[in-house]
Design a protein that fits this description.
eight-stranded parallel β-sheet; 16 strands; alpha/beta; single chain
Length: 299
Amino acid sequence: MNLSVSLGNLKLRNPIMIASGVFSLESAHLFPLDNIGAIITKTITLNPREGNPPPRLWETPAGLINSIGLQNVGLERFMKEELPSYLELGAPIIVSISGEREEDFPFMAEKLVGKGIAGLELNLSCPNVAKGGIQFGKDAKMVKRIVKMVKEASSLWIMPKLTPQAPDIVETALAGEEGGADALSLVNTFLAMAIDIRSRSSRIGTLMGGLSGPAIKPIALRMVYEVARAVKIPVVGCGGIMSAEDALEFIIAGATAVEIGTACLINPQSPKEILEGIKRFLEEEKIEDINELIKTLRD
């Protein structure tokens, strides 16, 4: 049975990717690294960020609101202190980068050339920062411009991560493709809030945060379906994938690979369990190659 997939020039042994923000070197021993197609690092910015004030997390009945705020050590310390250990894990490493200014993206990309990474995910969709993030991702022209700048600055494989709050997700996806993206990742979290009725205050320190988990899956699935029908480059689906059946829905809708995020916070073994469930399904359906399943939704 063939489980390998191609995201343009990037070949993965299977379609299971760990989403940005749920994996760290400290927690690496909890994950089934032999069963993962690729690891996407937490988002790195040019300069260190302390992140947002607490509380940063709030669990909802069908999801999780987070407002981490891209806490990270900055690009230079990441390359010196963390990246070497990531590269020893064995799985392809995709570095997620973000910036407060458009020019931060090509500058960081150029710095990461030749460092042994598999590629870059451009975080153009974080809802938890005052500058950049979702503000970039909601503007299709800016998405195209940033992707193009990164492609011109580096030879790395590039995948922008899109926001579901763009006015038109298909227009944004096409802009990324026109900019030269090798693949597209969608969707990031939805801006959301929760209120403590006794204190009349927000459950989140920044008032609002990004909602992930099962609550957003049906909407994310619809967006992946729409984008996969409109673009020619591979699409990576994410948003509330908790089970093999969830992942298979995204693949049938048009995703070549999937990112597992919130599920890893509950069970770090979920990527392995989802992959095993996909294998069982393919065996039951007598499908020898997972690529035969991609974009097979019957109209």
